[in-house]
Write a structure and sequence with these properties.
This protein is an alpha+beta fold. Strands 1, 2, 3, 4, 5, 6, 7, 8, 9, 10, 11 and 12 form a 12-stranded mixed sheet that branches. The relative contact order is 0.10. The longest helix is centred in the middle third of the chain and has 25 residues. It contains 20 helices and 12 strands.
């Protein structure tokens, strides 16, 4: 009798089953714990809220024990479960990002929620779920080491509004959860009044049969207390300073730009004083950035020696990991994108093209320049004159007039620009900047005299300039920008300028290819969508404006970690550029005041270990998200 030999497929199946069992017993990968814990925390929070809003006592042996407990314990446990659930929902996002404070709060709240589930709802399953989440949090506590995000005073007001609205809606659910126990038939106004009174700890006009009045009162009081405590905490907590370049940082960046500023046309925009900076260990390269809604947003290429770029990029990524910020780079060149992706493992996506005009090749002659030539001649015949000068050649009185005009002619309430805007005009430190102005004497002088339009350019190395802003009087004739760009290009040789960078055109290649004969349906649909979005974001108009001057196109890229991060990065970029403003208008006494610069905790630790040259000089932004 022969002995049967198991088939290989059977052995493979058993081996696969054992592998799955080992993976289940081993648990999730440590780096995946924060995301899983955040999702589970949100689930537990919903269970706790359900226990507080929709109480269902079981017919069990524990019910007999609960009946002999003090009468206020049941309602108190309901309020405790409700408030713990709301806090766990608020903490879920922080846990996903590995925030240390969120971990500490969750470790404290999970047992509270478990006790509330046991005492009030007698739910063994709810207790087990809370404890099952607590175990991996304690086991993988080293994965929750991200430093807290900086916040501004306006966060307290936003928290009060959002938490107040949420408490009001949730309070209505609590009040209406047991309509069969209501005394009488209260109106909606009475119910709202009862909720508002309950949030402030007072008794409202509605009454219930049995002990449900105490349950509702404690639940509403817990929601009101939670709103008050979180608002007071955000209002009184120590405030981190805004992202600002110190004088030393700015001096070091200017020294790097003096040696290597000709490499990137966006280099001078690193001197925006509302940006932060990290330097490489050698100090020969730097990356400037701002943190917006949890995205650590750099712009352009690193500043300085290309060989030192990896050191600055490494410090940038260390800072992002320390705070659990999402790293991203907007508008880097092809060389910059290659270095970023090689050193960090990030991906790059073409964002658009920068229009660069070579002064030696520019001319108004020819059929291609006919429209620009005719527009310029028409405006000149209307009596407009142009002047192109360095900032250092202008007097303080004229600079002040230009600054006031630029402010008055701004089309939006907020100053737009981040990656390709300096954010100031006529600063004494920016003497190499170029200002082109248009003038026309009217019969009745305006508030800014004969000044009608302004173009401001920043230096691009020793022989180039990059367009910063374009402002004009709305009463001036159309074509002011074309007039001043042509004037700047014609005056460039006398000023030692060989190249001029104009506006950045997003998705330029898609617009150009989509309008050609033979373009496929996908490309045409993409172009149609871009034209539709141009109603709000000037995508097509900027492309067509730049194309008038026959430039060469230099591609620019966005560098990102994962495709899932792109919507968040895009929203953060729109906030940084000023297209989206989330901060509510505040009274003057609630606005941020300049404060003393303080290093983050991890940078202070680096300094204490004797690495002053390599200390990360990152400044924290007020726009970080929890």
């Amino acid at each position: 009798m022969s002995v049967g030999v198991p088939k290989p497929s059977g052995r493979r199946a058993r081996g696969a089953a054992r592998g799955v069992a080992r993976r289940v017993l081993r648990g999730p990968r440590p780096e995946a714990v924060p995301v899983l814990a955040g999702r589970a925390c949100a689930l537990v929070g919903l269970l706790d809220i359900a226990a507080g809003v929709f109480p269902r006592f079981r017919h069990s042996r524990m019910h007999a024990v609960a009946e002999v407990l003090p009468g206020a314990l049941g309602p108190f446990a309901a309020a405790l479960s409700l408030s713990a659930g709301v806090l766990l929902l608020l903490l879920a996002h922080g846990l996903k990002r590995g925030k240390r404070r969120a971990w500490r709060a969750a470790v404290a709240l999970l047992p509270v929620g478990a006790v509330a589930q046991f005492v009030y709802r007698h739910s063994v399953l709810g207790v087990l779920i809370s404890l099952a989440l607590l175990a991996p949090l304690l086991l993988h506590r080293d994965q929750f080491a991200a430093l807290p995000d900086p916040r501004g005073r306006w966060r307290a007001l936003a928290n009060f509004v959002l938490m107040g609205a949420g408490s009001l809606l949730l309070g209505l659910v609590v009040v209406n959860a047991r309509p069969d126990l209501l005394v009488g038939d209260p109106s909606l106004t009475d119910r709202l009044t009862h909720v508002v009174y309950g949030l402030f700890g007072f008794e409202g006009p509605i009454d219930y049969r049995g002990n449900d009045s105490w349950t509702v009162a404690f639940s509403l009081g817990a929601l009101g207390l939670l709103t008050a405590v979180t608002t007071i905490y955000l209002a009184l907590r120590p405030e981190h300073p805004a992202a600002r370049l110190t004088e030393d940082d700015e001096a070091r960046l200017r020294a790097l730009l003096a040696r290597h500023g000709g490499r990137d046309s966006l280099g001078h925009f690193a001197l925006r004083r509302d940006k932060a900076v990290v330097f490489s260990p050698s100090g020969k390269a730097a990356v400037t950035y701002r943190v917006v809604s949890g995205v650590m947003l750099a712009s352009g290429d690193p500043i300085g020696d290309v060989e030192a770029w990896p050191g600055a990029i490494e410090r940038f990524m260390d800072e992002a990991r320390a705070h659990s910020w999402t790293p991203a780079v907007m508008g880097c060149s092809e060389t910059g994108g290659e270095v970023w992706t090689r050193e960090t493992g990030l991906d790059a996506l073409e964002l658009g093209d920068e229009a660069v005009v070579d002064v030696g090749d520019f001319s108004l002659t020819g059929r291609a320049m006919r429209n620009v030539r005719q527009m310029v001649k028409r405006i000149e015949r209307a009596g407009y004159q142009t002047r192109v000068r360095r900032v250092r050649d202008l007097g303080e009185a004229e600079l002040e007039r230009i600054r006031r005009a630029a402010e008055d002619w701004r089309g939006t309430d907020t100053e737009r620009g981040f990656s390709m805007a300096l954010g100031r005009v006529g600063d004494p430190a920016d003497g190499d900047c170029l200002i082109a102005t248009a003038h026309k004497a009217d019969a009745e002088a305006g508030p800014h005299g004969d000044l009608k339009a302004i173009l401001h350019f920043v230096p691009w190395g020793a022989d180039g300039v990059s367009l910063d802003l374009m402002r004009r009087d709305r009463s001036a004739d159309p074509g002011m920008n074309e007039l001043l760009i042509v004037a700047a290009l014609q005056a460039a040789p006398q000023l030692g300028i060989a190249r001029v960078s104009l506006n950045f055109a997003m998705f330029r290649s898609a617009l150009a290819r989509g309008e050609k004969i033979g373009a496929g349906p996908v490309l045409r649909a993409w172009r149609g969508l871009l034209i539709f979005l141009s109603r709000w974001f000037q995508i097509e108009s900027l492309y067509k404006f730049n194309a008038k001057f026959r430039p060469r196109w230099e591609p620019r890229f966005v560098v990102y970690r994962a495709s899932a991060d792109l919507p968040r990065i895009g929203f953060a970029a729109m906030q940084a550029e000023g297209f989206v403003t989330l901060a509510p208008p505040l009274p003057r006494f609630l606005r941020r005041r300049p404060s003393v610069r303080r290093p983050c905790a991890h940078r202070a630790a680096e300094h204490s270990h004797g690495t002053p040259e390599g200390t990360v000089r990152a400044r924290e932004s007020t726009a970080g998200a929890a």
